[in-house]
Amino acid sequence: MTVYKLPEEPFFPPVDDAEPDGLVAIGGDLSKERLIQAYAHGVFPWFLDEGDIFWYSPDPRMVMFPEKFKVSGSLKRIINHKKFSVKFDTMFDQVIRCCAEASRPDQDGTWISQDFIEAYTLLHAGGLAHSVEVFHQEELVGGLYGVSLGAAFFGESMFYKMNNASKVAFHALVERCLQYRIRFIDCQIESSHLLAMGANLIDRNDYLLLLEESLKSATVKGPWK
Hints:
Layout: E1 4-5, E2 23-26, H1 32-40, E3 44-49, E4 52-56, E5 61-64, H2 73-81, E6 85-88, H3 92-101, H4 114-125, E7 129-136, E8 139-149, E9 152-160, H5 165-179, E10 184-188, H6 192-196, E11 200-202, H7 204-214
Parallel strand pairs: 1-2, 9-10
Antiparallel strand pairs: 2-4, 3-4, 5-10, 5-11, 6-7, 7-8, 8-9
């Protein structure tokens, strides 16, 4: 199968034409307009290779429905103990850079290049990208970031410097999604860690229908409080 080369316009081909691993297209840029188009079409950028951006829409797709999030007994104790404090959208730049620097045993390096950092920082400035920040004694020890459109949240990456900090961040995200009536969190690809927390694998067609319905809702723009 021939992989689609993106034009200068923020356009994406049908995801039904994706490679078996979910690769939809290469090329293009990380402009605000293209990123919004990508997420609205069920596509996300994964990495840069020799200057080209690789865009994916995997099948099946991993999602978390906030109402199905499983709070384990140990996580309940951690939250109740108030060892950590949580904030939203106060240190987006630090969170995305910590995600870029995080060691990932199953990956060779990081896909979060300086181009990604600059692109998502602009989305954050536009009120569409958000960060969850977890602190221990005023030190940033965990967090995550992603993009919000309509009633959908597209998770991009998370990190932790203390055990359980990323779980606390995800729990806080779920609580905020319930508050804002966000229907699902896109977790992109399968993760045993997220499966244990209640995430589900769904067919790409089902994901696209869910996405289409979710984008009919208004986007909660600006800093999350």
